Amino acid sequence: FTMWFSLAEHCVETSHGVLHVTVHGAGNVRRPAILTFHDVGMDSKSCFSTLFKFEEMQEIVKNFTVVHVDAPGQEDGAAIYPAGYLLCPCDSVLITFLSFSFRTIIGVGVGAGAYILSKFTLTNPEAVEGLVLINVDTNARGWMDWAAQKLSNLTSSLSDQILSHLFSQEEMSANTELIQTHKERIAKAPNLINIELFWKSYQGRRDLNIERNNTFKCPVMLVVGDQAPYEEAAVECNSKLDPTTTSFLKMADAGGMPQLTQPSKLTEAFKYFIQGMGYMASSCMTRLSRSRTTSLSSSYSMEGSRSRSRTLSQGSQGGQLPPSPSHTMEVSC
């Protein structure tokens, strides 16, 4: 195991090859590290910089070590993999990395990264204290998805396939600046072969078989944008998790990448989640602090008690994100 440093960026040699990570934050070894894992067609910077550079997120960064992990070969300047290269499962790389680095983590994953962290958590429950899963799909692709992908391979470029995975149809139709930026970045990426390998690896994922007796042992916050490509998959995942330890955040006007389009709302929800785990108890909740309560609200006691899980709906009417079964907080956005 060897590590060499260039500012906050580290290249870590593991038995599965070199892993690129970026570390910043408090360096507090008494708390779990916040470990992020990006989606396909992105790297840690393009996926998480907007969120973790957001002003209100700095309070969290000051209290935790934050580790951004790049999937093998996905970082800027990565060596191009040769033809026929077999990409090592990313959860295996994480196991090797974490065994030398951190006692426990709070995982934050998007898309493929959410799947990888889910798989890692199921096999290493003692290493994960909490999970934030954005646009997660824990299922293998069905036959219809497989057939659609085969057709897409013939009619669409790799960048278009990945963009339809990252963004909603509304965003694609609008051809926003965000879409154009990511399309150009993927199309001109020097490591496009590596990106394609990661994409094919995710497309060939296995079903995690999550159900009530085979689920996460830690608190989980599921996040998905309204009309996002994986909205139905996130809803289905929510139905399979323990309702006493799961919060579901469905964000209006967030599109497929809520960490890029709604960093303020996601930061506040993340703070609540961390508080529910027993950390940052004295943290100021900024705009949300006025709505804080330590008892069940009337709407939650009437409707939430009948619902399967605690749900936060980020819309004009607000919602709730109780970080624990006995501690409810109301949110008005």
Topology:
Elements: E1 2-6, E2 9-14, E3 17-25, E4 33-37, H1 44-52, H2 58-61, E5 65-69, H3 90-101, E6 105-110, H4 112-123, E7 128-134, H5 143-155, H6 158-166, H7 169-174, H8 177-187, H9 192-203, E8 220-225, H10 231-240, E9 246-251, H11 258-261, H12 263-276, H13 298-304, E10 310-314, E11 319-320, E12 330-331
Helix pairs in contact: 3-4, 6-8
Protein name: NDRG family member 2
Organism: Cyprinus carpio carpio
Pfam family, one: Ndr
Describe the structure.
With 333 residues, the protein is α/β, with parallel strands linked by helices. The protein contains 13 helices and twelve strands. It has helices spanning 44-52, 58-61, 90-101, 112-123, 143-155, 158-166, 169-174, 177-187, 192-203, 231-240, 258-261, 263-276, 298-304; strands at residues 2-6, 9-14, 17-25, 33-37, 65-69, 105-110, 128-134, 220-225, 246-251, 310-314, 319-320, 330-331. The strands form two sheets. Strands 1-2-3-5-4-6-7-8-9-10 form a ten-stranded mixed sheet, with helices on both faces. A two-stranded antiparallel ribbon has the order 11-12. Helix 4 links the parallel strand 6 and strand 7 (128-134). The longest helix has 14 residues, at 263-276. It is globular. Mean pLDDT is 79; it is low at 1-7, 287-310 and 313-333.
